[in-house]
Amino acid sequence: METLTEAWLLMAGRDPALLQIVGLSLFVSLTASVLAALIAIPAGAALAIWSFPFRGLVVVVSTSLLALPPVVVGLLVYLMLSRAGPLGQFGILFTPAAMVVAQTILITPIILALTREAVLPLRRDYDALLLSVDAGPWLKLTTLIWDARFGVVTALLAGIGRALAEVGAVLIVGGNINGVTRVMTTTIALETSKGNLELALALGVILLLIALAINSAIHFIARFGRRYELTR
């Protein structure tokens, strides 16, 4: 009971350390989600729309990347950003930038796969219409992405949720440095091992509330999208 009280006081009192950790977590995850969306949304829509050699292989590979182990991604990014690595000259290892890179790699396959699933059913409905107006590739791509916007936003929210829950990759490339790269998930793991359950519990509650908000948004958007389709 005392632990719960202390955790509540940390949240209610807006503890500076707590706010810094939550703020950094949101910054890293949202930045990674935006970067991943810029890559994955057009790529996922393109895989749903266009036919090209080895398209099936590309789909299989991109889907397989959904099971990419976070620690492996963290290790690969670490090797690339270390002093001996090809990107070591930028000196971003153990910084939030390195964490953004790792999270972007992890969530890009998720957004790509979900975007493809959202756009794919529309291909048959729009093929004849877009062909009749002689739509170019870019117009076709943007039109279908817009019409599948509810599914695309759901894909983006799923990516954000996955990024916020990440531990392994950000721990490896970020180093969990106090005041620099310490985010909610890595802090929870560290503080629990140290026996500082008040901070760990406070961060756990905040993380659960964020996850609940994201899942509620996904559910609401899905329902709104279905109603929108029925009223068209």
Task: Please tell me about this protein's structure.
The protein is mainly α. It has one domain: MetI-like (MetI-like fold). Helices cover 79% and strands 0% of the residues. It has helices at residues 2-12, 16-49, 55-64, 70-81, 96-132, 137-147, 149-164, 168-174, 184-194, 197-231. Helix 2 packs parallel to helix 5 and helix 5 (96-132) crosses helix 6 (137-147). It is flat. The chain starts with a helix and ends with a helix. The mean pLDDT is 88.
Helix and strand arrangement:
Blueprint: H1 2-12, H2 16-49, H3 55-64, H4 70-81, H5 96-132, H6 137-147, H7 149-164, H8 168-174, H9 184-194, H10 197-231
Helix pairs in contact: 1-10, 2-5, 2-6, 2-7, 4-5, 4-8, 5-6, 5-7, 5-8, 7-10, 9-10
The SSE order reads HHHHHHHHHH
* Count of DSSP H/I helices: 10
Overall mean pLDDT stands at 88
CATH architecture: Orthogonal Bundle
Secondary-structure-derived class: mainly alpha
> Biggest sheet, in brief?
none
CATH topology: MetI-like fold
Distance between the first and last residues' Cα:
53 Å
Low-confidence runs: none
Percent range for β-strand residues: under 5%
Tell me the domain tally: 1
Give a nutshell description of this structure.
By secondary structure, the chain is mainly alpha-helical. It has helices spanning 2-12, 16-49, 55-64, 70-81, 96-132, 137-147, 149-164, 168-174, 184-194, 197-231. The protein has a single domain, classed as Orthogonal Bundle (MetI-like fold).
